[in-house]
Specification:
The protein is 84% helix and 0% strand. By secondary structure, it is mainly α.
């Protein structure tokens, strides 16, 4: 294990940094200034949710086209383009004075932050590793947790000292001064697989190599999609309305934001464990597990309002994110191959971004209609429980297909 991390440190750290700096385009970061943005532009919860949904839907529509960049250029080149455009988005966010400018800023933050930064990192890990794909993906995804643990605390302090708009300008500077040179230096050399399993998959592309069109006509893909893409809706909705939750439940904002570190610690621990499980038993076999802790997290958050609720909820959400962050990076190359992985992942990331767009818009609209978010959370909990059964069916379908292909090859 240690030799794997040591020998692959440059690529793993590069993937980690790509995931970490994607945080500037993630909902948990943008929504830190939800109250300030609504006040600056005279928006209601529903108005801001609708604007956020439109910007994110537009980014989701662009991802299948922009996402193919990682198939036709090197990881380093793709990273340069994406980081520069993400930095530009941060500057627009800092200077925006009109609603259209705010819409453009959020669109670019979602497309190049949540979308392309994550897409580039996970595509690189999925393509470069086979036998150790679970460990590679789980290590890279801990960058998301580092961002969640550090981002809110650091930038809330920066905003308190200089202002929320100035904090976006500082974020852009961090991308250009630190992220860009570090990631390019680490990723400029493409990884050459060393283990026999990795070499076999890289050179022979073992098994059927699905095209994007073929994947989209596969019934198992759509069955899997019901569960795999729903956490983006649920998680984004929760973090988007965090100011609302703090106000309604009477929580102390400091305790809430500090709890992100607890969630991040749980996510990192579970993600690394999941990485080993994927390498040993396959992503397909553990597919049914990730929705259960999310079901419990929504149930707790929707049913209770004490300060202790924050701790329990963040721990459960961390477990769910730990499983899913590794699982989602490993499942697609495992069941659909790596030849067209950039194109395949651009579609799956696009769907995730679409669901993350729908969440704030739909839930904000329901709040404006008078339906409490706590009630909506109970609906999400019931849906997550249903998804556990659906993922079990999908897992069995993938395993039966793999077994059938093995018999044919024999």
């Amino acid at each position: 294990m240690l030799s794997f991390y040591r020998e692959n440190a440059r690529w793993l750290i590069g993937g980690f940094l790509l995931a970490m700096f994607s945080g500037f385009g993630q909902t948990f970061f943008i929504s830190i200034w939800g109250s300030e943005i609504r006040e600056a532009y005279s928006l209601t919860h529903g108005d801001f949710g609708l604007l956020y949904m439109v910007a994110t839907l537009a980014s989701a529509a662009c991802l299948p086209f922009v996402g193919r960049l990682v198939d036709v250029t090197s990881v380093a080149t793709c990273s340069v383009v994406v980081i520069i455009l993400l930095a530009v988005a941060g500057l627009i966010m800092g200077f925006a004075s009109t609603v259209p400018a705010l819409l453009l800023a959020i669109f670019m933050l979602r497309l190049f932050g949540q979308g392309m930064m994550t897409h580039t990192a996970m595509t690189a890990m999925g393509r470069w590793y086979a036998a150790n794909r679970g460990k590679a993906v789980s290590f890279a995804t801990t960058g998301h947790q580092a961002s969640e643990a550090l981002g809110p605390t650091i930038f809330v302090m920066i905003a308190a000292a200089y202002g929320w708009r100035e904090s976006w300008m500082i974020a852009s500077g961090c991308l250009i001064v630190f992220a860009l040179p570090c990631i390019v230096i680490l990723m400029r050399v493409e990884r050459i697989p060393k283990s026999e399993a990795d070499r076999n998959e890289a050179s022979n592309e073992i098994g059927r190599q699905w095209t994007r069109r073929e994947m989209l006509t596969d019934r198992l893909f759509w069955l899997t999609a019901i569960g795999v893409f729903s956490p983006a809706f649920i998680g984004t909705s929760i973090f988007f309305h965090q100011d609302y939750l703090i106000e309604v439940n009477g929580w102390t904002p400091t305790i809430y934001y500090n709890s992100f570190a607890l969630m991040a610690a749980a996510t990192v621990t579970v993600a690394l464990i999941t990485g080993f499980c994927v390498d040993r038993w396959s992503a397909t076999r553990i597919l049914p597990l990730f929705m259960l802790p999310l079901c419990l997290a929504c149930l707790v958050l929707g049913s209770f309002s004490s300060q202790a609720t924050i701790i329990i909820f963040m721990l459960l959400l961390g477990v769910s994110y730990g499983i899913s962050s590794t699982l989602f990076g490993a499942i697609w190359p495992e069941v659909y191959g790596i030849r067209h992985l950039g194109a395949l992942r651009s579609i799956t990331v696009s769907f995730m971004v679409f669901m993350s767009a729908a969440g704030p818009g739909v839930t904000g609209w329901l709040i404006d209609l008078g339906i409490p978010f706590s009630t909506q959370l109970l609906w999400m909990s019931a849906f997550s429980l249903m998804c556990v059964g659906l993922m079990t069916l999908a897992s069995k379908g993938y395993l039966n297909r793999a077994n059938a292909m093995m018999l044919v090859n024999e």
